[in-house]
Amino acid sequence: MRRLVGETTLRPRQLILPMFVAEGLDAPRPISSMPGVVQHTRDTLRKAAVDAVNAGVGGLMLFGIPAKRDAEGSGAIDENGILNVALRDLRSELGDSTVLMADTCLDEFTDHGHCGVLDADGDVDNDATLRLYAEMAVAQVEAGAHVLGPSGMMDGQVGVIRRALDEVGHSEAAILAYAAKFASAFYGPFREAVDSQLKGDRKTYQQDPGNVREALREIELDLAEGADMVMVKPALSYLDVIKAAADISPVPVAAYNISGEYAMVEAAAANGWLDRERTVLEVLTSIRRAGADLILTYWAAEAAAWLD
Ligand code: PBG
């Protein structure tokens, strides 16, 4: 009876697995604050990606960790940069059997850890960053990405990327806009996951956690610039924002169940304080119930297997 009358669905195809690939590793490197998640080598990335696709996930979101960084994040644009190389690996392995997504942001590649380049005063230079995002996006699509995920919260990033792609004939590539991304303490474990060099915070470009009206305005701007899907991030402390986004969005709404949300449940489960599988499925169901069509979650492959 509960199955018959259940309101909210949670299906493997609605889950997107974020994955990390690092340059110059011989073996996968565990991320201590995210038990069960690793920085992959090119080789283990391939295998884990195939396993996730076989488990039924709807897509993969790839992050790259370079061996060397510089002020401009040039490894992000270089066709031999780790993220572009790994995209090529995965596209040749998986073809069109999944939706391959790439993080279109400079923070993993800059030696200061910011999502953009800095001006003479050390502030993030929005418009100079946009020019690099445009080049990065083209490089990622040429490497095999189906979808780009601009996550840097620069003003105008969606429009600039859309135009850059269309100009070189990649009108097929889609944009998943990190539209409402909040300056959150829950990103903590991710900073370890990508060996982030950031000192300070991202409050000049990420949003104030108290602002929902501003989140909707960010979403509207991204839609006007050509976003094909919009994202709210983080998920759990922002379920009301997901709901508000779902109420107004004419395109699919994604939510990112981020590193700190993962770490909290894993830590409690490891202590025997929570039933891990039940908790994970309840968390994911709550994000769907709030209105997210798609969920990026580090549990994607495992949850997909449970749901199958
Ligand atoms: C920035 C980016 C971040 C995450 C995804 N893309 C970190 C940040 O904004 O500091 C966080 C994801 C997570 O915490 O799981 N490129």
From TrEMBL:
Domain of life: Bacteria
Catalytic activity: 2 5-aminolevulinate = porphobilinogen + 2 H2O + H(+)
Protein name: Delta-aminolevulinic acid dehydratase
Top EC class for this record: lyase
GO biological process: protoporphyrinogen IX biosynthetic process
Complex and partners: Homooctamer.
Family: Belongs to the ALAD family.
Residues that coordinate or bind 5-aminolevulinate 2: S259, Y298
Annotated binding of 5-aminolevulinate 1, by residue: R191, R202
Residue spans crossing the bilayer: none
Organism field: Amycolatopsis saalfeldensis
Keywords: Heme biosynthesis, Lyase, Magnesium, Metal-binding, Porphyrin biosynthesis
Record-listed Mg(2+) binding positions: E218
List of catalytic residues: K181 (schiff-base intermediate with substrate), K233 (schiff-base intermediate with substrate)
Protein's job: Catalyzes an early step in the biosynthesis of tetrapyrroles. Binds two molecules of 5-aminolevulinate per subunit, each at a distinct site, and catalyzes their condensation to form porphobilinogen.
Pathway connected to this protein: Porphyrin-containing compound metabolism; protoporphyrin-IX biosynthesis; coproporphyrinogen-III from 5-aminolevulinate: step 1/4
EC number: 4.2.1.24
GO molecular function: porphobilinogen synthase activity; zinc ion binding
One annotated Gene Ontology cellular component of this protein: cytosol
